[in-house]
Specification:
heterodimer, A: 295 residues, MetI-like fold, 14 helices, globular, B: 528 residues, alpha+beta, Dipeptide-binding Protein, domain 3, 17 helices
């Protein structure tokens, strides 16, 4: 007697990854452009030590407020610090804050959103009212309030941005999970005697991944903007940490007329990274949403 | 650039020396770079936000000569009729008070008002705050034997008494009101100064109108003033540029000055001065490893004050390197004396090598800490950012905790910090009183190093009783060495520099070494 095992690859009828990537680029040129920008920011942040020509916090009094030149491609700030190096390291700060806030906020929102939909009843009612309260405040106002309580610094900024993101994700995920809660396989899982955690984590959460990923992608951009805003207001990361919003605070007003490059380049960095993330997020939504996919 | 500097020098010179006949009339609009003060009481408060708004309403007993305000020894009478000659071996000062002076409500001002106000400053009742009472430890009694005489009796003769007496915060209040309510002047204004109080919009503005009964003949020249609170520098620059305001009295940054001079040309003059104000680096001696003198000294040795001050003067309101005494004073260390102290050597590489050695010896290699700083750009944040990079050069990693003034003060008062960047701002240059701020916390409540040094206190007590300037100078060197080298308790980090761009039509006012001095506006007139 012989046994045969099905070859899983033989059952996968999807086109290969490279082919899907090419198709994505053809269908979503703007999204692809966004992805390129996101990848550039990510590489810049990850390999900042290798890419930055100077130490981003080292003062150089012989080069204060120098215009862009071969020695300093984007010029220097009022301390003589190389702007290009600060922008490169600033990408790391933006990524740390953006990704941490988006993923932690998104994951907590996912768990709470799916849990709220699954349990329903009083738990759902209470959680939704709490979310209503948190969402009544604009993200930046809520973050300002939280950073006022916890204080400044990278870690506190991440906490301040993460908290207002949680209900935003939970609300969207809950609406998707409410539909999934009623499908037969969830009833079947319950009938098999599986625990709540297993049903939520194994059977419901994977099925709300599409809206979840779209939300998280959008959150990264929002978190980067929020971090820049907090730093600009003096409530985010502190000098001499290289951060784009902080660079705008230092240069935007005082040197706007005499050394405009101090404000322009960090502003451009914020704009391009948020633009890239938003374009990619839109394309991802179009690709993952079955209703939009074939339009 | 050179042409610009020559033009600037001419403007400064012109502004400072031109002697013209004052014109009567007009309202001066000026800016106060703050959100407003905690109260209106000059005896209680210590911020220019209160003084710039309130000084025009009040008289003082004596004051710095408004026509020679940069002098550190030229004091003249305000409410008194003649400067007293001390008697009783320098222990008694008798002042005759002007007659015919009235408070703005029409009630007469006499010696009882002067003595009651001074008693409130020197011997405040329980529950009444007096910010500068420590400056008057030498005062034994204040008497008013008749309506025109006030006598100060001292416990010991000292050089620091008279400059402290001319302190611009020492407003004269009505004794009738003080007898009823010692806190009245925290919320109300009633003085006898050149301007009568008109209105105060909290956190917005203060207005005053000319006092026709003012006792200095012909003054004030203005019909009134309008002081606007504007904490953001760019708002103030825009206001002066658009002629919505004529000036401010604290200081603007070099770039703001250059911007206004470039845009307004001869419509703006610039007055500049060294400033009796400087940053101080304060390690908390109660926290490890800053309880170790070697670690504290290593931090000071890392700072290249000479090169840093020169470079940062281009972007911040700082300029001069000095020890604990205002650099313009005869009691200040000379450059030779200064360079022998830790942290002031011009050979920075040698100093940093010594700093690394001290850290290694103290077992504090790779030290990292958080430096508490105030969220005021000029110059706190700029100096703090510079210091972080200086510490990096000896292998010390520092992050800044930059917070608003209230929490910053609270953290220092609670001892909740490792190292703090703070400031030492004084008014009349009075080195012996001014350097009292370096005394241990139990002797000077606003010293936040939380150190203990009986030897330092002993030297100070000798110095404050010394009336021979030459001997006082010797004692000051000994005191400075104890603070900066033996104990390495705190470190002065560059002295500040005042830069005031002023609309050219504002005349009569002269800059001083303090943003607290010469603020009654009586001698200002508008050439419009």
């Amino acid at each position: 007697m012989s046994t045969t095992t099905a070859d899983p690859d033989a059952l996968d009828l999807r086109p290969p990854a490279w082919s899907r990537a090419v198709r994505f680029c053809q269908r979503q040129p703007l999204g692809s452009f966004g992805l390129v920008l996101v990848v550039i920011v990510a590489i810049t942040g990850i390999f900042a030590e290798l890419l930055a020509p100077y130490n981003p916090t080292a003062n150089d009094f012989s080069s204060m407020t120098e215009a862009p030149s071969l020695a300093h491609l984007l010029g220097t700030d009022q301390f003589g610090r190389d702007l290009m190096s600060r922008i490169i390291f600033g990408a790391r700060t933006a990524l740390i804050v953006g990704l941490s806030s988006a993923f932690v906020g998104g994951l907590l929102g996912l768990v709470l959103g799916v849990g709220s939909a699954y349990f329903g009843g009083t738990i759902d009612l209470l959680l939704q009212r709490v979310f209503d309260v948190v969402m009544a405040f604009p993200l930046i106002i809520m973050a300002l309030a939280i950073v006022s309580i916890f204080g400044t610094g990278v870690h506190n900024v991440i906490i301040a941005i993460t908290i207002p993101l949680i209900p935003r994700c939970a609300r969207v995920v809950r609406s998707a999970a409410l539909v999934i809660r009623e499908v037969p396989y969830v009833d079947a899982a319950r009938a098999c005697g599986y625990g709540h955690v297993r049903i939520i984590m194994r059977h419901m959460s994977p099925n709300v991944m599409a809206p979840f990923l779209i939300m998280v992608t959008a959150f990264v951009g929002q978190a980067i903007l929020a971090e820049a805003s907090l730093s600009y207001l003096g409530l985010g990361v502190q000098e001499p940490v290289p951060a784009w919003g902080l660079m705008l605070q230092g240069g935007a007003e005082e040197y706007a007329s005499t050394a405009p490059w101090i404000a322009i380049f960090p502003g451009v960095a914020i704009m391009l990274s948020v633009l890239g993330i938003n374009l990619f997020g839109d394309a991802l939504r179009d690709t993952l949403d079955p209703k939009l996919r074939d339009r | 650039m050179r042409g610009f500097l020559v033009a600037l020098s001419l403007l400064i010179g012109f502004g400072a020396t031109a002697a013209e006949t004052p014109k009567r009339g007009g309202v001066l609009t000026f800016l106060i770079p703050a959100d407003g003060g905690p109260s209106l009481d000059g005896h209680k408060e210590g911020t220019y936000a209160v003084l710039h708004a309130m000084a025009p309403f009040y008289s003082t007993l004596v004051r710095v000569n408004p026509d020679n305000p940069t002098s550190t020894t030229d004091f003249v009478c305000d409410l008194c009729t003649g400067m007293p000659v001390p008697t009783d071996n320098g222990l008694t000062f008798t002042f005759k008070i002007r007659q015919g002076v009235k408070f703005h409500d029409g009630t007469p001002l006499d010696a009882r008002d002067v003595s009651a106000s001074w008693r409130r400053i020197v011997f405040p009742q329980p529950g009444v705050a007096s910010a500068r009472r420590n400056n008057f430890l030498m005062v034994d009694k204040i008497e008013d034997p008749d309506a025109t005489t006030v006598i100060f009796r001292l416990k010991f003769p000292t050089l620091s008494f008279f400059p402290a007496l001319a302190d611009p915060w020492n407003f004269i209040y009505s004794h009738r009101i003080l007898e009823k309510d010692q806190h009245y002047f925290e919320r109300n204004v009633l003085g006898s100064g050149p301007f009568k109080f008109d209105k105060y919009e909290i956190g917005q503005s203060v207005t005053g109108v000319r006092n026709p009964d003012y006792y200095h003949p012909g003054q004030p020249y203005l019909d009134g003033f309008h002081a606007i609170f504007a904490p953001k520098q760019q708002t103030r620059v825009d206001a002066i540029r658009a002629d919505r305001a004529a000036m401010e009295f604290r200081s603007m940054s070099p770039s703001a000055r250059d911007q206004l001079v470039k845009e307004l040309g001869d419509k703006v003059t610039v007055q500049e001065s060294d400033w009796n104000c400087g940053n101080v680096l304060t390690p908390n001696h109660k926290r490890k490893p800053f309880d170790d003198v070697r670690v504290r000294k290593a931090l000071y040795l890392a700072i290249d004050q000479w090169r840093g001050a020169e470079a940062l003067s281009k972007i911040a309101i700082i300029r001069t390197v000095g020890g604990i005494v205002y650099p313009g004073s005869p009691l200040a260390a000379t450059r030779d004396e200064l360079t022998k102290l830790p942290g002031f050597s011009p050979d920075i590489e040698k100093s940093r090598a010594e700093a690394r050695r001290l850290l290694k010896e103290a077992g504090a290699e790779g030290l990292s800490f958080e430096m508490l700083n105030r969220n005021v750009d000029q110059p706190y944040v700029i100096v703090g950012t510079w210091l972080v990079d200086e510490f990096r050069k000896i292998g010390v990693t520092v992050t800044q905790k930059i917070i608003p003034t209230g929490p910053w003060l609270e953290a220092m008062r609670a001892g909740d910090f490792s190292v703090a960047l703070e400031a030492n701002c004084q008014n009349i240059v009075n080195p012996i009183a001014d350097t009292g701020r370096y005394l241990p916390h139990e002797h000077y409540s606003d010293n936040f190093a939380y150190h203990d040094d009986p030897k330092q206190v002993e030297i100070y007590n000798k110095m404050v009783r010394e009336i021979d300037p030459a001997k006082a100078r010797v004692l000051m060197r000994e005191y400075e060495k104890q603070v900066l080298e033996v104990g390495a308790h705190q470190q002065p980090v560059t002295w500040w520099y005042r830069i005031l761009p002023i609309r050219s039509y504002v005349k009569g006012w002269k800059i001083t070494s303090s943003h607290y001095l010469n603020q009654d506006l009586a001698n200002i007139w508008l050439d419009k």
